UniProtKB/TrEMBL annotation:
It comes from the Bacteria. This is tRNA N6-adenosine threonylcarbamoyltransferase. Keywords: Acyltransferase, Cytoplasm, Iron, Metal-binding, Transferase, tRNA processing. Fe cation binds at residues 115, 119, 314. Its cofactor is Fe(2+). The keyword Iron applies. Residues 28-321 form the Gcp-like domain. Binds 1 Fe(2+) ion per subunit. The gene is tsaD. It comes from Luteimonas cucumeris.
Length: 362
């Protein structure tokens, strides 16, 4: 089955083709992402209406480009997957409208995909580890991006239990806002992480929020305030900016690592098979986070799995892959163009490969 995936939840237009006849990374026949960073830079953040209009301009040419790179014509597609939520409603409707129209014209099934399920399943798209194989449920997933920071128990594909989430800012959002208050240009998160590479470890030490109490929730707003005060009272030199960036990044990374270790211990106490952590979302590309989580996994006899950095940020590949799993299981949507800007992942239907044809309600 060749599935066209379309992602338009925010400010990236992503298109991909995933072929279930091929395994692992080979199944990704082609993918392309157009970023709207330059469009939104002068506003210091995403402007929803501008995002929607740019998706309208870029989506169809990107579909044509991706199909050409995959060596396919539009009639070679067996199904269409699109991001149905969560996200910006106008942006979501652009992708959903295109996907539903294309599926109707081709008389092919279409499926609306939960954006965060796409992120969660992205590591399963990669080639199998030669020793451990591809990650299989049960496992714990850390979904960490500009809009979400969540720990999720994955008992099976489509069966998710929220273990903890941020009570205020997501980790990626905290990166962006911290960068902005120190004068770094938009988008600040990646620039702050790059600056932290040159910072002195330990020159500034900030708290690890909510790690001194039980539970798996996160909070990063207070950490931003600590950085603001440190920056305001400093000499505001480039050296100091780098040192504060390093201190901030270390605090976020340590907090995420502590909570992940705690979540895995909790799940292992319930099911000893659960020794795998899957990490996805834009912050999952952070080098220091990857190194810290890999180190922790080695110390505790577990494993951690990431998608390649290019598939950590929003992309059509993860939507094509997640959609392919559900289409193969016989799930599909009706012809209505419907999106869900706020969507609890725990309400998703399970994916049962042995099941017959069944409709999914968004």
């Amino acid at each position: 089955m060749k599935v066209l995936g379309i992602e338009t939840s925010c400010d990236e237009t992503g298109v991909a083709v995933y072929d279930t006849a091929l395994s692992g990374a080979a199944g990704l026949r082609a993918h392309a992402v157009y970023s709207q960073i330059a469009l939104h830079a002068e506003y210091g953040g995403v402007v929803p209406e501008l995002a929607s209009r740019d998706h309208v301009r870029k989506l169809l040419p990107l579909v044509r480009q991706t199909l050409a790179e995959a060596g396919l014509g539009v009639r070679d597609i067996d199904g269409v997957a699109y991001t149905a939520g969560p996200g910006l409603v106008g942006a979501l409707l652009v992708g959903a409208g295109m996907a539903r129209s294309l599926a109707w014209a081709l008389d092919k099934p279409a499926i609306g995909v939960h954006h965060m399920e796409g992120h969660l399943l992205a590591p399963l798209m990669e080639d199998a580890d030669p020793i451990h194989g591809r990650p299989e449920p049960p496992f714990v997933a850390l979904l960490v991006s500009g809009g979400h920071t969540q720990l999720v128990a994955v008992d099976a594909i489509g069966q998710y239990q929220l273990l903890g989430e941020t009570l205020d800012d997501a980790a990626g959002e905290a990166f962006d806002k911290t960068a902005k208050l120190m004068g770094l240009p938009y988008p600040g998160g990646p620039q702050l992480a790059a600056l932290a590479e040159t910072g002195t470890p330990g020159a500034y030490r900030f708290s690890r929020p909510m790690t001194d109490r039980p539970g798996l929730d996160f909070s990063f707003s207070g950490l931003k305030t600590q950085v603001l005060l440190a920056w305001r009272d400093s000499d505001q030199s480039e050296r100091t900016r780098a040192d504060i960036a390093r201190g901030f990044e270390d605090a976020v990374v340590d907090t995420l690592a502590i909570k992940c270790t705690r979540a895995l211990a909790l799940r292992q106490a319930q099911d000893e098979r659960c020794n795998t952590l899957v990490v996805a979302g834009g912050v999952g590309a952070n080098k220091r986070l990857r190194a810290k989580l890999a180190e922790n996994a080695a110390q505790h006899g577990g494993r951690v799995c990431f998608p390649r950095p290019a598939l950590c940020t929003d992309n059509g590949a993860m939507i094509a892959f997640a959609g392919a799993l559900r289409l193969q299981a016989g799930q599909h949507d009706d012809a209505q163009v419907q999106v869900t800007p706020r969507w609890d992942m725990a309400t998703l239907a399970p994916v049962a490969r042995e099941s017959g044809m069944e409709n999914r309600e968004s």
